[in-house]
Amino acid sequence: MSSLSAKIKDAFDEPACDKNRGKDAKARKEGCSKSLTPGAAAGGCAFDGAKIVLQPITDVAHLVHAPLACEGNSWDNRGAVSSGPTLWRTSFTTDLTELDLVMGQGERKLFKAIREIKHTYAPPAIFVYSTCVTALIGDDIEAVCKRATEKFGLAVVPINAPGLAGSKNLGNKLAAEALLDHVIGTVEPDDSGPYDINILGEFNLSGEFWLVKPLLDRLGIRVRACIPGDARYRDIASAHRARAAMMVCSTALISLARKMEERWDIPFFEGSFYGISDTSQALRNLVRLLVRKGADPEILERTETLIAQQEAIAWKKLESYRQRLQGKRVLLNTGGVKSWSVVHALMEIGIEIVGTSVKKSTVQDKERIKQVLKHDKHMFESMAARELYAMLSEHRADIMLSGGRTQFIALKAKTPWLDINQERQHPYAGYDGMVELVRQIDLAIHNPIWSQVRQPAPWDCQPDLIGELPCTRNETAYLFDEFACATAHEC
Amino acid sequence: MARILLQSKSAAVNPLKSSQPLGAAFAFLGVDGAMPLFHGSQGCTSFALVLFVRHFKEAIPLQTTAMDEVATILGAADHLEEAILNLKNRTKPKLIGVCTTALVETRGEDCAGDIANVKLKHTQELAGTEVVLANTPDFDGAIEEGWARAVTAMIEGITRSGERARHPKKIAILPGCNLTVADVEHMRDMVESFGLKPVILPDISGSLDGTVPDRWVATTYGGTSVEDIRELGTAMQCIAIGEHMRRPAKALLGLTGVPYVLFQSLTGLQDTDRFVSLLSSISGAAVPARVRRRRAQLQDAMLDGHFHFGGKKIAIAAEPDQLFQLATFFAGLGSEIAAAVTTTDRSKILEKVPAVSVQIGDLGDLESLAVGADLLVTHSHGRQASERLRIPLMRIGFPVFDRLGSQHKLAILYQGTRDLIFEVANIFQANQHAPTPEALDPLRNREISHERCSPPLAGQ
Asked: Quick one: B151 and B61 in the same domain?
């Protein structure tokens, strides 16, 4: 546990995070995850966070060392997509029983499980996740992984992020640490070039990175490693030879970006592929970093040409929605980077933002949102379910964009809702992705069900109907008699 | 009698199980004004919550004691206390159902003692709220056990003990966790059609049936009332459905003397006949005309449907009682149970499963045993095996997250059995392969064509 607590301490000291720098030494020591209130807490644990970051690596076997719940209740539940291997979707767990725990057989069972996986699936690597119970009983997964690596001749990587260590966010960081300690830099590529980049924190949800990658291909930029979306183990192991990096999901993997810059001199910037101007800005920043690192400056002009072309097409497509969506009020209830980058494009076509959550946003994110929204009264840290329900049922927004967790608050308040988190069905990245997002908003808001489901039952709201009842009843009775007659004859 | 084959692998591949505390929470969700509370780290709750939401497409009340490192080392009694008081103040539940997890059970905490202390210390604050404990470590059992433990805990903790004056028309019904919202609703209608008054515990048909309330409610809305649980002892008769409900039924018998009858399954003509006869004899009423009509419809469905079932090889993975329910259904229509996989060896029902053997295991086992089968029957996680083996999948059980309306799917009594026959027959008809001259050529290499007859997909 001592190395784990050192790791956690390290994760809480992040020079590249402004929020972290703004704290005094004592506050920093307490970490960035707020302590949880029993009976009023929500959200995943550190193990959840680590698994989210690593599981999309497609050719790795992910083995969870735990009793059933950690893996059994959570496997195959995310929307990341692979262009090849499917092993990452196969679930592996040691499924510890009472007997295993009482007899102290955890480590042995783990070792045997690694052997079984190696023999049956022959993956390039096995990631082994520790969890609350196996941390509590003191199973030394690092030692088991080391021994297995030697014995079986494949990478067996310990992921030391038990749930009790803290929040999902901490788990993200601990996963990054594991990659730095055990994976990145272990394979030397024989084909590195001046246009190699890494994308960090891109999960390829619904395949959305494939809306961006062709743009990079067009510019001659090669993605050495996209971590973790649609990644292969070897790509990540050789990611240290990239010339530049873009960090997409800001809170999750900032330490990974910073440490890769320190160790291997890979400069990075924080950007987003959500929204039109953000996508363009990301492309510009990427090529600038590459040029700084020695790429031919002619790429700058080619990039501008591509951007101008793609932006024109996207704005033209979006323009056709302006009339339908002008003045519509959107409530954005999601954390992190999505807020500020999407806000801009939505406002551009006349959509009004009536609120945005800044729970997971960084100080910079908040500044950006403030600039875009003019006044900050539309920003909220988090909203209780009851308040959110009240706001939506009073129709103070025309649609809510959020993650699955608050989905049913919107739907039960009979308000249009669109999933923009990990379980969503549509890709929203890049220029085409933004058009798709606006299209989905349009489809959701203008679906004909809304007027129907909001209509109360006629007998609940029309006193007139009660007065008319005798007549109606007679008619029905008459019809019924007639029907009964007809069927009787048929018989 | 089926042979029970124990698990010998160290790595479980594609788990069949969901965890035991999830099963307990599921049962608590069938009580009106309830708030299940996981005693463990926040991740335990988060995973279960997400899985429930994916299955039911509903907001699910479920909270956590949020154990951290300090609580794990020093003990979590104060986390439990704080959680109970917070829940009471914020959501005013009528029932807080505490489900323990592997973390707190591995520590070996005396949760019953802790809860007793909380109740004693805060008697006034907690007035109007029952707090019930189910010991449900993740390293043991699965949904069935968790569900049964929660129901037992509610009976032992809430029902007034002692012999009471019996209401001649009142029937206590303890449904197993394999019954859907539609099953429970339909069963209630059937019982009421005999002039009887059923009290169903848990009653998910009231709480997880996907209605739209007119205000925001943080707890469950609908389900068995706490008052009804308290008064279970005035029932004339208890009916338990599923072998795993024997324990709560026995607890009720021990506490109040209400006798029970246990139905291992309510799917199929004969089991339904027994159930209907029982209702008729308890109520003294004749079997209503519409029930007779349903029976005739089922007879007809069996006549029309059996062509599609005869000789088919079925591979089923489910918890013990559901495995029994489905295996007897298929076997009763002439199919062969080619593979039977389940979660635990503890259930007595397993030896009655009409299969040569029952494997304790996971969906990885199902996938290797199901080669050559005509139909896979399990929950949504069977989709990967179905794709790889190219065998159609009938989704049943929990979780079903990639199809809508599983809670409204009826599979018991005359009508449910009828619907199930149609569903399966339609899957087979949709996946028919048209005959080709090559496949039927009598002069074709006979060994190969013989192979084709037995496992059609062997070698793939």
From this structure: yes
